[in-house]
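Lab notebook, bench 4. We co-purified these components, and the gel suggests they stay together. Before we commit to crystallization screens, I want a quick structural picture of the whole thing.
Request: model the full complex, all chains together.
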Amino acid sequence: MEILLEPSAWIALLTLTFLEIVLGIDNIIFISIVSNKLPIDQQQKARNWGLILALVMRIGMLLAITWIIKFKEPLFTIFETGFSIRDIILAVGGLFLLYKSTIEIHQKVEGEVHKQETSKKVSLQSVILQIIMLDIIFSFDSILTAVGLTEELLLMVIAVVISILVMMKYSKAISEFIGQHPSLEILALSFLILIGFMLMIEALHYHVPKGYIYFAVFFSLMVELINMKVRKTRKPVKLHKRMEEK
Amino acid sequence: MRKLRELYEQYKEYVRVDLIMYAVLILLIIGYVIISSLTS
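Here is the predicted assembly.
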């Protein structure tokens, strides 16, 4: 717990929580579309229960990934460099982040919007199950981002918990804010490209000080906040969502 | 199983890449466990 007294821990926590919240917006939209199939009195209950259970699963996945990447014994050697399961997972995870964030940026700027039919009747249990499954599947990049930004499991768990609680309470306000300032979403996805690249470099045993990432995130964010002030009078660009309700 | 399949058919365009990544990760872990138990 002493880690929380260090300023670097607070910077890591802030950075990670910001990314988790912004990247979680798409998850919220999916969850809203799924839960809107229920009667109005059950929708909030489904979202809250689904998110709480998804939070438990995310923490479980964080524990599993951080446990796996502790194994540093080399499995094989290439050009006199030993590669362990940790290095393979970091390399594959980094590649996945690079690919996924590039595809997401492309889809948001140039992709098609898919319309989802919401008239089919469903039960509360099946909606909660769908929310949990979708959140687990879509949260893999969040898990890898947490692994890339800090080595402290406690900070990862705190960031995930805060982001899920914030999304439960303020999802509408955050969605509206991001809708007004879509460049923040593109910025967050760009940071994933940076983190993915950094994971791949770490897999090759080159250690990248996390401070470089935190500085890049905060500098870009400061520039973007100034831009937002300057662009206040212009209409925001409408990014494509992965899915919208019909 | 049928419900999971229906869920997959409904959302497969959005979840395909993530599911592939999960499958790769699970295979890596299984492979690691097999290799460690064979070499120890």
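Chain A is about 70% helix and 5% strand. Worth comparing against the SEC data before the next meeting. The two ends of chain A are 48 Å apart (CA to CA).
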